[in-house]
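SAMPLE LOG
Freezer: B-3
Tube label: C17
Construct: single chain, 349 aa
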Amino acid sequence: MNGADSDSGQAAGWRPSFTAGGKLSLTLAISRYDHVRDLTASEVAADGIALTALELPVEEIFHRFLKYQEWEVSELSLAKYAALASQAGSPFTAIPVFPSRFFRQSSIYVRAGGPVKTPSDLKGRRVGIPEWAQTAAVYSRGILVEDYGLDLAEIEWLQAGVNEPGRREKVAIKLPPGVRLTPQPEKSLDVMLLAGEVDAVMSAHAPAAAEAGDPRVSRLFENYREVEEDYWKRTRIFPIMHVIAIRRAVVERFPWVPMNLMKAFEEAKRRSVRRLVEFTASRYPIPWLADIAARTYALFGGDPFPYGIEANRTTLDTFLRWCFEQGVCQRRLAPEDLFVPGIEQRFKI
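STRUCTURE (predicted):
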């Protein structure tokens, strides 16, 4: 399979605009996260930038930015961004700000009582994914290969929308030798799993049956918290899902923009953490949240959501290797290849 649902940014040329005060007007599209809330609410400002924030569903953000470049700065799938970065002429660059991270052992769903009870049972089975180049799927496949010895060519892969039919790949891919991937545009993974047409589903968004608590669906790793904590301790990998991408034309015209945005994202995260760990008042409707946060910081030995390249090198390097091995990237990238040159050296938290 070698196709895409994107013209990879062949959009009209970008023209800058400025406020009456001389600030550069930029639009950011991003999901609703507490650790970016102060930036999107204009309580934190990026120097020299008048930022307009759009809070949209993540799949809509990805589609509209990849296909039409409707705004200048965007949350973007790390796998799709890396796929474009591995090709010539990508219209995007990025800063090492990672708004979404999630362990992915919890994202593999099977039929309760079905034939798949352990990872090794996936051999010879049919497994559904939303897209081969979905970031979560790259991590799930990499974990199955390296932690459980599976061969991707020994699985029959089917691609379809999670809960609605019609989903397609958004970037070009080149499948590894022997790997079979069959699009199922008229079906959904949720329906296929319940009907026994696939034996497992790997997806960032849970199938509707799983979300509804349908007893016919369960996770492959029911003790996923224990499995994921052990994975962190052994590998020091905390999967990065999304990155902050910027239209390359913006950075070429205004090279100071990436650094100023990165500092603003860091300050917004710092304020979010301060709310999270406050013991004197609960800022969220969850008991013992400050204690949970303290335990998490102890497990990670510090900030579990660090920005920057070096603090995330193990995760990034492993992910990029898997992207190349799985045919998502056309060449083997280093972490530095993803980001504005020199930003790690210039960024001082």
